[in-house]
């Protein structure tokens, strides 16, 4: 809320003084405040990410911001006329035109361009080094040009993008050293390294791919001889056919360490021609030819304010340098440029360029929709315009960085439309509340590709709440027989948690796989909204009349305020007063009901909204005893389920699962919470609110992803898997590879469940 107030305050200031330029500051309150010092002519707009800055600029809420090299490429890819590049931010010691140039160095006798590298020995500086600031796309440029890793040959189904890539490379090059992770998933990485050892043969301990020999013989002034580019060049002159490295290191290496070899090597240019190295060539600040030239990071303004801002900045920062001192001008320099930099302003004599016009002569990435790739794009199902916008930015950011496979975004009306489209092959994945986990598995035949990890306080916690006034008759699960129960939704998490607990307590038959019947016949009445709707079918061949699961539901319409049972509703929207978690609380307040199965994580706010703060409930614990205290603060070991709040779903046993899983690993690594803002090539956050809007694509409570297996070390994720393992055994919603279980298997499973639960209980205690 604080930052929102601040934004408001700044907007007010901005209106009062039309001269004031608003500058984006990414998540730094102190910096933001310091911009207001002493007669400052700028104001700060605190933003969560650089991408948010770009959006605030297009809305007119900000005028100027700083963008990294790859963020500038992202803006270029968006290709709008809303922005202008005012100048580039360069390293004060390297006032060359580009942030870096990636070049291919080959021996002079090389022939036949990129195809001539076939069968050759390839020296690469390594993947995954964040300090290098080479995106996956840059790191792979030589490979795409020579081995054509963007074209698939052979079977792609069921395989990951990195597997297809490495397989192509392995057959194109005879040997290589390509250190670093080939996949964000360590298991896949190790597997690929063992299957394609020739791509590590030129590394130090061949096979480990950990990097190069310590070239103690190499002595390059001012550069560590452990620098990966220097080592790749050393690999080239030892026994290589090509090295793919940064131009500055080529100059350093040959001039300083191996001047004797300058006459023996050439640059391989984009058109396949060679430019021999020479002392003169090596002294040039830019390479005579390169495969990638990277623009510097830049200061970008809105089109309307660009000319005025450029004039002002040139005035505030003479020669593009930090005016220093503790002035607001210097603070502004820290915000937009940073330490050890100097700004090279675009000339104010010619019109300022948009990011795409600015970058296109330097580096151009084909338009996202015009690019063929080896694997088809994975289709992310979105459910609102805001979610779709966030998805589109993530898609473009991932594409700009060269993440494979690509993403596309498909907007649908709601969760069920997404689940249906994924089932029918019209979309591929979605992150969705675990509330719908069972329905997604049974009715839509989906399965998880990842589970989320949650903040500790936002996991889904299901409790059985009994009215305090009836705790004299209800103190164990068996006492619930022939009572009246409230569920937020039929087939939802709370409903399934009850089924599982009731199985565990032996109060409903675990051989009854029609859970509507099992629950419907156990209680004398209940409200389980949706029980009659085809969209909520969890057991295809049910013969049970599920009306019995809706006898306690009530219309919310005033026309039915005094409704009797004749005004029957089972709808699963707010026309049913007792629909949803808050509806179940209201249901429990009804004099005819006894117990409600609800999620407790937001329960206080819900009770308050319903005016029920003082209602008195007591939890019936999973171990079959009443909680010691009255109230909704249910202790963890009393909950009937404690699981993650969301999961990423795709079609069950689908060929795309593996590539989707590693795509999500890459997104987590680049745009998740494990990477610091300063290390991100593009500052966008998949798990965070987007422009102040919460729970888009992922819930705000998400902190990362985890595997949908019992190996995960996130306890709520293990609980979730364990719960479905139990429930799916019966409805045979499990993968078809699992044999249809007979009674013996089921008994064994529930025994296993009990053992696991006992162990978990032990660990928790
Ligand atoms: C280039 O010369 C090296 C060393 O003289 C030799 O090993 C290699 O086969 C030659 N390559 C070509 C393509 O002729
Ligand atoms: C890595 O991928 C393998 C194979 O797809 C999968 O079984 C495993 O759970 C993944 N592990 C991690 C940590 O992502
Ligand atoms: C260079 O590589 C080739 C092919 O792997 C190998 O036969 C040769 O012995 C190597 N030469 C040196 C000097 O390492
Ligand atoms: C470099 O080139 C010179 C002249 O062409 C040649 O004599 C020398 O053997 C070459 N050195 C290497 C290591 O290939
Ligand atoms: C960008 O380039 C296009 C094509 O050359 C030109 O029509 C357009 O005016 C330029 N726009 C900007 C803002 O530089
Ligand atoms: C289910 O039961 C309700 C209420 O008893 C009844 O009105 C309805 O006709 C029954 N539906 C079927 C399909 O038997
Ligand atoms: C509902 O019942 C109350 C009192 O029993 C009565 O005052 C009210 O008018 C009734 N409302 C309707 C819509 O029948
Ligand atoms: C609520 O659900 C009922 C059926 O269950 C449907 O007829 C009605 O149109 C829905 N209302 C809204 C507002 O979605
Ligand atoms: C429950 O919460 C939803 C969403 O906040 C709201 O639309 C609905 O009216 C609430 N239901 C009741 C019974 O208050
Ligand atoms: C409900 O609780 C609040 C705070 O605990 C208290 O101030 C209020 O008097 C109570 N209301 C009733 C009706 O008991
Ligand atoms: C069951 O769990 C509750 C909640 O922690 C605990 O207070 C109680 O002692 C346990 N009862 C038994 C019989 O284990």
From TrEMBL:
Cleavable signal peptide: 1-18
Organism, as annotated: Chilo suppressalis
The keyword Signal belongs to this UniProt entry's keyword annotation: yes
Keywords: Signal
Cited CDD domains: PBP2_transferrin
Residues of the Transferrin-like domain: 21-366, 378-725
Protein name from the UniProt record: Transferrin-like domain-containing protein
Pfam families tied to this protein: Transferrin (PF00405)
Superkingdom of origin: Eukaryota
Keyword Signal appears in the UniProt entry: yes
């Amino acid at each position: 809320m604080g930052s929102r107030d601040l934004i408001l305050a700044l907007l007010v200031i901005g209106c009062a003084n039309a001269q004031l330029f608003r500058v984006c500051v990414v998540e730094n309150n102190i910096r933001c405040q310091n911009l207001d010092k002493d007669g400052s002519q700028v104001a700060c707009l605190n933003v969560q990410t650089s991408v948010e800055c770009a959006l605030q600029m297009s809305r007119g809420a900000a005028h100027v911001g700083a963008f990294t090299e790859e963020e500038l490429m992202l803006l270029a890819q968006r290709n709008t006329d809303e922005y202008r590049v005012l100048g580039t931010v360069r390293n004060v010691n390297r006032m060359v035109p580009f942030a870096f140039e990636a070049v291919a160095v080959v021996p002079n006798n090389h022939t036949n361009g990129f195809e001539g590298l076939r069968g050759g020995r390839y020296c690469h500086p390594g993947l995954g080094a964040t300090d290098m600031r080479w995106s996956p796309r840059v790191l792979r440029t030589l490979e795409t040009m020579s081995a054509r890793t963007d074209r698939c040959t052979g079977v792609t189904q069921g395989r990951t993008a990195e597997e297809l890539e490495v397989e192509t490379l392995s057959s194109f090059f005879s040997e290589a050293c390509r250190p670093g992770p080939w996949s964000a998933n360590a298991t896949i990485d190790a597997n690929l390294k063992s299957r394609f050892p020739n791509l590590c043969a030129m590394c130090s301990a061949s096979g480990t791919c950990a990097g190069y020999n310590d070239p103690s013989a190499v002595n390059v002034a001012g550069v560590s001889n452990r620098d990966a580019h220097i080592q790749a060049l050393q690999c080239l002159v030892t026994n290589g056919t090509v090295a793919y490295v940064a131009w500055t290191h080529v100059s350093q290496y040959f001039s300083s360490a191996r001047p004797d070899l300058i006459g023996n090597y050439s640059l391989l240019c984009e058109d396949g021609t060679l430019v021999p190295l020479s002392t003169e060539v090596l002294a040039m600040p830019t390479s005579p030819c390169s495969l990638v030239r990277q623009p510097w990071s830049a200061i970008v303004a809105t089109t309307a304010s660009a000319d005025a801002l450029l004039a002002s900045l040139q005035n505030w920062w003479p020669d593009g340098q930090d005016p220093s001192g503790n002035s607001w001008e210097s603070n502004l320099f820290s915000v937009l440029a940073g330490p050890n930099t100097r700004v090279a302003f675009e000339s104010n004599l010619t019109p300022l360029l948009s990011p795409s016009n600015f970058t296109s002569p330097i580096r151009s990435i084909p338009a996202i929709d015009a690019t063929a790739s080896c694997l088809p794009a994975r289709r992310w199902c979105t459910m609102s315009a805001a979610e779709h916008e966030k998805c589109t930015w993530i898609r473009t950011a991932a594409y700009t960085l060269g993440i494979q496979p690509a993403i596309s975004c498909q907007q649908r009306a709601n969760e069920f439309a997404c689940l249906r489209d994924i089932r029918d092959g019209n979309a591929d994945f979605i992150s969705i509340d675990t509330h719908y986990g069972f329905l997604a598995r049974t009715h839509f035949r989906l399965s998880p590709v990842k589970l989320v990890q949650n903040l500790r306080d936002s996991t889904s916690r299901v409790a059985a709440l009994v009215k305090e006034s009836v705790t004299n008759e209800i103190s164990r699960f068996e006492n619930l027989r022939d009572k009246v129960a409230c569920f937020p939704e039929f087939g939802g998490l709370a409903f399934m948690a009850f089924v599982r607990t009731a199985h565990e307590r032996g109060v409903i038959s675990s051989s009854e796989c029609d859970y509507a019947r099992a629950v419907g016949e156990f209680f004398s009445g209940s409200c389980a909204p949706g029980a009659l709707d085809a969209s909520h079918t969890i057991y295809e061949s049910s013969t049970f009349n599920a009306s019995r699961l809706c006898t306690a539901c009530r219309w919310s319409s005033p026309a039915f305020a005094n409704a009797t049972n004749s005004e029957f509703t089972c709808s699963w929207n707010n026309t049913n007063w007792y629909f949803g978690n808050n509806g179940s609380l209201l249901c429990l307040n009804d004099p005819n009901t006894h117990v409600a199965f609800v999620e407790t994580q937001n329960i206080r706010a819900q009770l308050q909204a319903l005016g029920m703060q003082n209602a008195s409930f007591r939890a019936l614990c999973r171990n079959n005893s009443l909680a010691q205290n009255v109230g909704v603060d249910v202790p963890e070991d009393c909950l009937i389920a404690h699981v993650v709040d969301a999961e990423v779903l795709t079609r069950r046993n689908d060929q795309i699962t593996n590539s989707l899983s590693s795509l999500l690993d890459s997104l987590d690594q680049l745009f998740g919470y494990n990477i610091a803002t300063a290390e991100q090539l593009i500052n966008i956050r998949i798990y965070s609110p987007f422009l102040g809007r919460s729970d888009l694509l992922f819930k705000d409570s998400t902190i990362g992803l985890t595997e949908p297996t019992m190996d995960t070390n996130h306890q709520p994720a293990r609980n979730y898997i364990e719960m479905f393992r139990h429930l799916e055994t019966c409805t045979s919603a499990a993968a078809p590879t699992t044999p249809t279980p007979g009674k013996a298997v089921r008994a064994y499973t529930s025994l296993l469940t009990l053992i696991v639960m006992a162990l978990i209980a032990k660990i928790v205690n």
